[in-house]
């Protein structure tokens, strides 16, 4: 019998029923046995907006069903956010979007520009101690309420093809680095006004915990925190003092709600790897190998141990550049080099890039379905790659 075409897969001396994508993802997240290696690329509008160039008009879920991967949809709405005494308005001039945050204690504004098929911040919210007080006012007046009906509806739409996942807020230091002040000004503010910044970070942390307490009651199995951690933007001391304790607090709240807590860390992690291994998060999402990242999944498994979930393993820019054959060989290399494929979900080390050939991802799906349970052991002839490209 050809077990790669059978609804059953040979695993040791036992047969395992073929899982649905939802069952496979949840089993891997919980460290349970799976029928084959899960494959869940991080697909968001960045990639979807480029599909018409390849002749496809698909939304996110349609695209993932077309690819045939195990679906993990990100950033699904589950919480409503409201802030008392805050008026938000925008102005668009010359390709620049200026967003104003008007409060009784003052106004903040930021600017974003569009370029290279994406948006970027050209002017951050914070530049002075006066701005810090305004942001504290906004944080102290922000409230969260459940929006679980919207989440349940989306999760039902995905059905057995995978799972919907809600997002929790990232640690305050990462909010500063990414959204509120930028790397340079965050460092200057911390050096010049350490007490004021510490107070701001504490206020933001308390706000975030309010968010997580509501989110912990969401009818989901896992919550993601999008930290985007990397040694390119923060030091070890910054991570140890300002990220790790906050992430552990969020993990505890989520665990108290009976859910898994996965931290998205898509940057260069080698310098933090030992500290991450000690963290309370259940796993790391979008683990990225060189050169965008600097940590291969097989090295991460040895450092993190066997309990932490690892989601990632494929460098996104490489997936954009590679041929179908190279994409298949990359996945085979990952499978062969991993010391254990338990609690591992093959994915991209952050969002699939704009313009990535959809056929590369379809080929990976075909490879893993063809291998079946052999994708968990590496016990197969690499020449199988020669037969995967036909019909794609």
How would you describe the overall organization of this protein?
The chain is an alpha/beta fold and 392 residues long. It has helices spanning 21-29, 45-48, 60-67, 129-140, 148-158, 172-180, 182-192, 194-215, 236-256, 273-277, 297-304, 316-321, 324-337, 358-371; strands spanning 8-11, 14-17, 71-73, 79-83, 87-93, 96-103, 106-115, 118-123, 142-146, 162-164, 167-168, 222-226, 260-264, 283-287, 309-314, 344-348. The chain has one domain (8-79, 144-171, 210-387): TIM Barrel (Alpha-Beta Barrel). The protein is built from 14 helices and 16 strands. It has a six-stranded parallel beta sheet with strand order 11-12-13-14-15-16, with helices on both faces. The protein is globular. It starts with 7 loop residues before the first strand and ends in a 21-residue tail after the last helix. Mean pLDDT is 94; it is low at 1-15.
Write the layout of secondary structure elements.
Layout: E1 8-11, E2 14-17, H1 21-29, H2 45-48, H3 60-67, E3 71-73, E4 79-83, E5 87-93, E6 96-103, E7 106-115, E8 118-123, H4 129-140, E9 142-146, H5 148-158, E10 162-164, E11 167-168, H6 172-180, H7 182-192, H8 194-215, E12 222-226, H9 236-256, E13 260-264, H10 273-277, E14 283-287, H11 297-304, E15 309-314, H12 316-321, H13 324-337, E16 344-348, H14 358-371
Parallel strand pairs: 3-10, 11-12, 12-13, 13-14, 14-15, 15-16
Antiparallel strand pairs: 1-2, 4-9, 5-6, 6-7, 7-8
Helix pairs in contact: 4-8, 6-7, 7-8, 8-9, 13-14
Structural class assignment: alpha/beta
Name the poorly predicted regions. Answer: 1-15
Quick one: overall form?
Answer: globular
CATH C-level label: Alpha Beta
What is the terminal separation in angstroms? 25 Å
Order of helices and strands: EEHHHEEEEEEHEHEEHHHEHEHEHEHHEH
CATH architecture: Alpha-Beta Barrel
Q: What is the percent of helical residues?
A: 25-40%
């Amino acid at each position: 019998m050809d077990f790669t075409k059978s609804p059953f897969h040979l695993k040791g001396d036992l047969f395992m029923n073929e899982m649905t994508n939802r069952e496979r993802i949840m089993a891997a997240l919980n460290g349970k046995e799976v029928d084959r290696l899960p494959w869940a690329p991080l697909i968001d509008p960045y990639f979807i907006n480029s599909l018409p160039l390849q002749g496809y008009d698909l939304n996110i879920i349609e695209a993932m069903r077309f690819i045939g991967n195990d679906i993990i949809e990100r950033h699904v709405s589950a919480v409503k956010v409201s802030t008392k005494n805050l008026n938000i308005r925008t102005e668009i001039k010359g390709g620049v979007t200026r967003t104003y945050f008007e409060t009784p204690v003052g106004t903040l504004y930021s600017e974003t520009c569009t370029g290279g098929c994406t948006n970027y911040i050209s002017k951050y919210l914070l530049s002075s101690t006066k701005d810090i007080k305004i942001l504290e006012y906004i944080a102290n007046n922000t409230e969260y309420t459940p929006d679980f009906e919207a989440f349940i509806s989306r999760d039902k739409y995905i059905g057995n093809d995978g799972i919907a996942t809600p997002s929790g807020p990232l640690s305050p230091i990462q909010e500063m680095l990414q959204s509120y002040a930028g790397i340079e000004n965050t460092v200057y503010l911390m050096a010049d006004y350490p007490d004021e910044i510490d107070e701001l970070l504490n206020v933001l942390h308390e706000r975030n915990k309010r968010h997580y307490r509501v989110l912990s009651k969401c009818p989901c199995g896992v919550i993601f925190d999008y930290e985007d951690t990397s040694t390119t933007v923060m030091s070890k001391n910054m991570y140890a003092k300002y990220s790790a304790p906050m992430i552990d607090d969020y993990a505890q709240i989520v665990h108290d709600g009976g859910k898994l807590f996965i931290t998205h860390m898509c940057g260069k992690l080698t310098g933090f790897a030992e500290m991450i291994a000690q963290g309370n998060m259940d796993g790391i999402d979008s683990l990225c190998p060189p050169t965008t990242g600097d940590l291969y999944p097989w090295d991460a498994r040895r450092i993190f141990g066997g309990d932490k979930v690892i989601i990632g393993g494929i460098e996104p820019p490489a997936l954009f550049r590679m041929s179908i054959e190279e994409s298949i060989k990359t996945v085979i290399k990952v499978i062969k080099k991993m010391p254990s494929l338990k609690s591992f979900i093959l994915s991209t080390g952050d969002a699939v890039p704009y313009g990535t050939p959809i056929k590369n991802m379809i080929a990976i799906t075909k490879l893993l379905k063809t291998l079946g349970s052999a994708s968990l052991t590496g016990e197969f002839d690499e020449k199988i790659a020669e037969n995967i490209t036909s019909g794609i």
